[in-house]
């Protein structure tokens, strides 16, 4: 079975949002091919999910992702024999930033300005053409995540949301919303994890599984 078949066989309830899951994966790959990055955020458990996503993207997940021959040559030209240890240890990453991991900036902005705009400020500062924003909110209405999505839209970058089943502010704003079929916070989060594991695994396969 491929990654998608495995996801739906293990979590058949996710078939109701299958099209949106695949759409989000296409959007993530499009951003990578364009040389762009992925900006991810959430609150509480969803902040941990944002960091988890970045952890799977920025290093090998299911595949090793070694540097290619052209990159190896650059290291050899610069580092000589030492290049071998770098080639052995460095893995190709899919550029991504968990906005909630910026602790000093996060607390400074929340203290000095307005916590409801802390993610919006980061999107405003980081976003470049072809980037992708992913907002995670079990309700879909977390004000700071919604404000970040609005900022992303205003800047013209694509937007994806992971939420629970209900319509929400994020589902109104974002280009793609994966609405997993639960409403209780922890149950929504339990379904978000296999969704983003699929997204990361399939993206890695498409880029590095050649």
Describe the fold and architecture.
- There is one protein chain.
- The protein is an alpha/beta fold.
- It has two domains: 3-58 and 93-208, Glucose-6-phosphate isomerase like protein, domain 1 (Rossmann fold), CATH 3.40.50.10490; 64-92.
- Helices cover 56% and strands 10% of the residues.
- It is built from ten helices and five strands.
- A five-stranded parallel β-sheet has the order 2-1-3-4-5, sandwiched between helices.
- Helix 3 (45-57) runs parallel beside helix 10 (185-208) and helix 4 packs antiparallel against helix 5 (83-89).
- The protein starts with a helix and ends with a helix.
Trace the largest sheet across and list its strands.
2-1-3-4-5
What would you report as the Rg, rounded to the nearest angstrom? Answer: 18 Å
Largest β-sheet summary: 5 strands, parallel
Known CATH architecture of the largest domain: 3-Layer(aba) Sandwich
Proportion of residues in β-strands: 5-15%
What is the number of strand segments?
A: 5
Number of helices: 10
How does the overall form come out from the CA principal axes? Answer: globular
Order of helices and strands, N to C? HHEHHHEHHEHEHEH
Q: What do we call the CATH homologous superfamily of the largest domain? A: Glucose-6-phosphate isomerase like protein, domain 1
Number of folding domains? 2
Helix/strand/pairing category: alpha/beta
Please identify the top-level CATH class of the largest domain.
Alpha Beta
Q: What's the average pLDDT?
A: 97
Helix content: 55-70%
Q: Which oligomeric state applies?
A: single chain
The fold-level CATH name of the largest domain is: Rossmann fold
Low-confidence stretches: none
* Spatial separation of the terminal alpha carbons: 17 Å
